User: Fold this.
Amino acid sequence: MDQPLTARRLSWADQNAAPLASTIPQAPALPHPEVEEDDDDVDGPGVRTLEMGVLMQGYVYRAAVDLPSNGQLVEVVGPLPAGIEILVKDEGSPEHPAALWVEAELKQLGVFYHGLIVRIAGGEFAEVVVNLKACVMGPREGRPSKVYHNVELIRALAREEVQDNSEGSAFRRAAQLMAEDDEDDG
Assistant:
C-alpha cells in the first residue's frame, strides 16, 4: 500500500485512491518574480500613520508620533476631533525631526480614522499628514489586548463608572426617578 503523500482517503472504500497531485490543476508560476506587492501598511513620503489598535471607550491613551522631516514644528492645522489632544514631545531642529504626543479619549464606538496636517518649518516636507487609526470597543465587549505597540494607557475608567452605564443601572435609575416623581405628586 504505497500511496503518495498527496493522496487522500475519503472513506474506507477508497483504499486505492488516485494521487491528487495529478488531478488538481496547478497555478502557473509568475513570469516576473521581482514584481512588487502593493503594501498598504507602508507610509508614503510626508505621511505618518499611527495605529493605536483596540482601545476601550472612555479610557485615555497616549502614543508618540515621530515626524518624517527634520525641521521645527510650527503648528497642527485644522480642528481636532472630540477626544483627541496633540502635545509637543519634541519641537525638532534642523538636526533631528519633531515629535508629537497624541492623547486619545474616544467616546464613540467603532472604527476611528482621522487625518491631521502638521506644518514644519525648514524641513524636507513643509506639511506632514498624520493619520490616526483606532478601533474603539465598549466595556461590555470584553477586554482589549494588553499588548500595544508604542501606545500607553494613561487613565482607565473606575469600575463604578462602567457599571453606571449598563442597561440595568439605567433601568433602576429610571424606576427610582419615577418613584420620586410619584412621591412628589401624592
